[in-house]
Prior knowledge:
The chain is about 45% helix and about 15% strand. The protein has about 260 residues and is an alpha/beta fold.
Amino acid sequence: xxxxxxxxxxxxxxxxxxxxxxxxxxxxxxxxxxxxxxxxxxxxxxxxxxxxxxxxxxxxxxxxxxxxxxxxxxxxxxxxxxxxxxxxxxxxxxxxxxxxxxxxxxxxxxxxxxxxxxxxxxxxxxxxxxxxxxxxxxxxxxxxxxxxxxxxxxxxxxxxxxxxxxxxxxxxxxxxxxxxxxxxxxxxxxxxxxxxxxxxxxxxxxxxxxxxxxxxxxxxxxxxxxxxxxxxxxxxxxxxxxxxxxxxxxxxxxxxxx
Length: 258
Ligand code: DAK
């Protein structure tokens, strides 16, 4: 396994796990961390033995946002060249499901990173927020869009205009996250969920992820068309034959991912 400076990587069963690892700066997303994150997600996505990924931090912090030291003297042109842009674009192209396992601070770019994942599992101590207004900026990696789609306009307005933070309970009640567990075992539960998904038919899982995520971008008519095409395509896979034959034979399917 490759050695990185700002993240740790690990494979458990069919799950690739990335742990953000700059605890002294509350996992602030500096440029090197982002490039390591891109590298690790890309290699997990290419690895056929992996079916799903988890991005996590530590119990105190998922990530407190972009590293403010990297941005303090930046010009608009500097920001246009920021690795935030390729990193967040790359996460959108990852084919396998990614689950964010969040505990403690999940702020700014950290909250945007969690929202770029496909599911979010949180510990009871999680705090979600978009505090960029305190720095004289707005969210720039999807916060205004993904947060609004998840929690609705009025809560997003309060969070982004006035730095309202959400507890785990509130985030759950506003549909921002999937589940809450005690701090001691939120990560264990996240990895189990990722493993369950990773053991399912890989092509169908990836097709479902793609079409659900596309639904935020397209009209209902286009989305239904995309769904239908993807559905038809799966009938050219061996896994579809295997899944249906296994059902009829009353046995467990054995997925090949082709
Ligand atoms: N950046 C750099 N350092 C940070 C940091 C951050 N985001 N967050 C925390 N730290 C550092 C602190 O400076 C401190 O460092 P030392 O003084 O020990 O050297 C250390 O972590 C501990 O922090 P505190 O002393 O402040 O600890 P507290 O427990 O009192 O408070 C806190 C914890 C997380 C509530 C607080 O540190 C905090 O408010 N942090 C900043 C949160 C924030 O404002 N986040 C938003 C950042 S802006 C882009 C798209 C998006 C973005 C960027 C580019 N493009 C499209 C190009 C995203 C922007 C953002 O995320």
